[in-house]
Each structure stands twice: as C-alpha cells, then as structure tokens.
Specification:
- The chain is mostly helical.
- The protein is 78% helix and 0% strand.
- The chain contains three helices and no strands.
- The longest helix is centred in the middle third of the chain and has 24 residues.
- The chain is elongated.
C-alpha cells in the first residue's frame, strides 16, 4: 500500500493538492493503459493504486475543510 502521507504533510497546501491530483492521474493512466492493451494488473499494483486513491482522497478532503 502507498504510505507517503509523511512526504506530503509538510508541503504547502497548493503542493499537497497538486500531489494528490498527480496520484489520481497516475492511477487513471495505469487503468486506461491496462484496459486499452488488455493488460492484467497484479494484486500488488492494484493495492498500490488503491493506496494512492485513498491518500489522495484524504488529502483533498482535508484541504476542503
């Protein structure tokens, strides 16, 4: 699972938002690539993608409050 929350916790708000959006875009691209080329994602890849999504959601929710 992705455990980079320590990396982004000290960043300015704008950078944290951009970092979260970057993670979401990376996951989107990985899924689009897998779908377009009939690639299978390993359980580890899926777990890492889920971790990125969870962390990005947490960051964005925190910034929204």
């Amino acid at each position: 699972m992705c455990s980079n929350s320590g990396i982004v916790s000290g960043m300015p708000e704008f950078q944290r938002r951009e970092f979260a959006l970057l993670w979401l875009d990376q996951v989107k691209q990985q899924l689009v690539d897998a779908a377009a080329f009939s690639k299978c994602l390993s359980p580890e890849q899926l777990e890492n993608a889920a971790g990125k999504i969870s962390e990005a959601r947490r960051i964005l929710a925190e910034l929204a409050n």
